[in-house]
Every structure is written in C-alpha cells, then in structure tokens.
Amino acid sequence: MPPLVPADKAGRVAGVDEAGRGCLAGPVVAAAVVLPAYVKLPGLADSKLLSPAERARLEPLIKTRALAWAVGVSWPPEIDERNVLRATLLAMSRAVRALKLSPDELLVDGNQCIPEGLVGFIPQRAIVDGDRLVRCISAASVLAKTFRDRLMGKLERLYPGYGFARHKGYGTREHLQALVELGPSRMHRLTFRGVKPEPANAGEHLCLPGL
Known about the structure:
Distance between the termini: 60 Å
Largest sheet: 5 strands, mixed
Strand order of the largest sheet: 3-2-1-4-5
Shape: globular
Order of helices and strands: EEHEHHEHEHHHH
CATH class: Alpha Beta
CATH architecture: 2-Layer Sandwich
GO molecular function, one term: RNA-DNA hybrid ribonuclease activity
Strand content: 5-15%
Number of strands: 5
Pfam family, one: RNase_HII
CATH topology: Nucleotidyltransferase, domain 5
EC number: 3.1.26.4
Keywords: Cytoplasm, Endonuclease, Hydrolase, Manganese, Metal-binding, Nuclease
Catalytic activity: Endonucleolytic cleavage to 5'-phosphomonoester
C-alpha cells in the first residue's frame, strides 16, 4: 500500500500521473487527484501493477472519495509538434488546471516537474516511482489509465483495423503489421519510430562501399 502524504498537507496535495506516453497511437492522458487525509482505498497501487478488473473497481472509489480529480489530454498532433515529454507535461497541466480546487502542492510522477508557465506558482515535487510510493499519485495513475483505455476502445470504432481496443496503441506485433497494411491513421504519432517510414537508404551506413 503506498504511504499517506504528510497529514498537514493531506487533502490539499494533488498527485499527477500520465498514461500512454510510450504508445504509437492515441493521446497522452494525465490525471490529477486530491485525496482527503487517510482516505481508505483498499488495493490501491500503481495502475501498471493492477489488473483491468482491479482498476475498474478502484476508479469509482477514487472519484467519489477524492476531494477533486480531473483529466487532461494531449493529442497526437501536439505530441508530434512538441515532442512527447512536452506534450505529457502539457496534458498534466490541463489536468491540474481542471481541478475544482487549487492544490497547495503537486506531486508529479517521474523526474520532471510541470513548467511554472503552465500551472502557475504551485509548489511541486517530482517523485521517481511516485505511482508506487504515494497514494494520490497511484490514484492519478489509475484514473489516467482507465480513461485512456476506454478512449482507445472508442477510437477502435472510428479507426477500425488497427486493434486499438486490444493493444491500446502500444507497438505490438499486431499493431505494427496493421501499420504496414493500412498505413498510419489520424490517431498515430507520425514522428514515432514504427509509424514514420524508414528511409530507403537507412541501412547503407552499416557497410563500406565496395565491400
């Protein structure tokens, strides 16, 4: 069970995490969650360590017991234009700005804080493996993941043939084969390896002329 945040700040601290950063298709989704002090959320953990059924059970509990929660999205054109790190921080800032209360502090999963220009002068801490260590970040990871998984199911209906509902946009063998056969859709990240076509002479530098 991830530890509670300090009692004097609990209830005003927003945990922030993302889902989908490493995918070839679909948006990056971020969530921000403010939990009250000592709230009970049995089984809460990093979303990557939970089964789909466990995440589905936790999602409504988090939403009903949180003081505030919100989701932010950054779509593939923004990812291609800005790069995935900047687009992720943008999605995080959108989640924070959508909260119905202003948190006293942000705890951000990873090693990067959100630029002040995107969220104002809220104190922040970046916490590596925060989704495993801090409950409000774990809660954010669950909301980001469940929201994104549902969204990819809807995108499967709009862009059939890629298998979005199954692999959620990750670079599985099935997904890569669909890209070969169908080419990229509007939901693909055109700057990502595996989506953008390799140049015809990509392997020429591996050998010397005449050998």
